[in-house]
Design goal:
By secondary structure, the protein is an all-alpha fold. About 75% of the residues lie in helices and about 0% in strands. The chain starts with a helix and ends with a helix. About 50% of the residues are buried.
């Protein structure tokens, strides 16, 4: 998804990509509701609203940072979100992380840092990098909200279904990102035929990713899913090697190995 966004970002503004990402999920939700007869029955309204608002802001800031500082650095900074998820889940959901998961998180973050500093262009902190950090913080809140909607409750409302959480993310996210493509905050850029195809693929990949993540968050904690998502940074790096002619230094390669090792360690500790 991030690689496709990078492909079109020189011509299409980041906020517009973010809006179209959410807009793709609207017809998918309607088809699932009308054809597949999935159940969409909201119960935990506060957490569902939080998931949509924070998720929409996170995506908006993420795609904007991809446009401004590139997919590698933007993805790296955005996927420090597990640090924020750990804090918010501890505070809001009282999910004290296992010590082994904390060590796995430390390993993955170390690996990500090596990948970043092993690039030809080092990170230079500036205004757009701060936007990427904000996207990570808000994303941490969004993931915590998903976990809150999905975990079982003994005496409260039943947990939300997968499609209910996705529908709230899609609908509310579309509303959150819409002002960014309208005057005075922004404007619409007409995509070409190929750009429409890439944008549609970006949206469909995001739909699949969100549904898989929501399913996983019923079984493992927000911190756990956050550690697993760190592998996205490595995948973004590999896509740069394959499709954008970026280089991989020995330091970055070591970071990839450490990141994958952290993910495997987390999976084994959560069994």
């Amino acid at each position: 998804m991030a690689s496709l966004a990078r492909q079109v970002s020189p011509a299409i503004p980041g906020p517009q990509i973010a809006f179209l990402r959410f807009a793709t999920g609207v017809p998918v939700t309607l088809v699932a509701l009308l054809v597949a007869r999935v159940e969409i029955r909201p119960r935990r309204w506060g957490w569902l609203a939080a998931r949509g608002v924070f998720g929409g802001l996170a995506v908006l800031l993420y795609f904007t940072s991809i446009e401004k500082i590139g997919v590698g650095v933007a993805t790296l900074i955005n996927y420090t979100a597990p640090v924020w998820s750990l804090v918010f889940s501890w505070i809001l959901l009282h999910e004290r992380p296992k010590s082994r998961v904390a060590w796995a998180l430390l390993a993955t973050m170390t690996g990500v840092a090596l990948v970043a500093t092993g690039r030809e262009q080092a990170i230079r902190m500036g205004g757009w990098e701060l936007v990427a950090i904000a996207s990570a913080a808000v994303s941490g809140l969004a993931v915590t909200s998903v976990r809150a909607t999905r975990r079982p409750s003994g005496d409260g409302p039943p947990s939300e279904g997968n499609w209910t959480v996705f529908a709230s993310f899609t609908m509310v996210g579309s509303l959150v990102t819409l002002p960014a493509i309208m005057p005075p905050l922004g404007g619409w850029v007409a995509p070409s035929g190929l750009q429409w195809l890439l944008l549609a693929m970006c949206g469909l990949f995001s739909v699949a990713a969100q549904l898989l993540m929501t399913s996983a968050l019923r079984e493992i904690t927000a911190t756990g899913i956050g550690v697993v998502q760190q592998v996205t940074v490595v995948l973004a790096l590999l896509s740069g090697l394959l499709f954008f002619r970026e280089t991989l230094t020995l330091r970055a390669a070591l970071g990839c190995v450490i990141t994958v090792g952290g993910v495997v360690s987390m999976v084994l500790s959560d069994r």
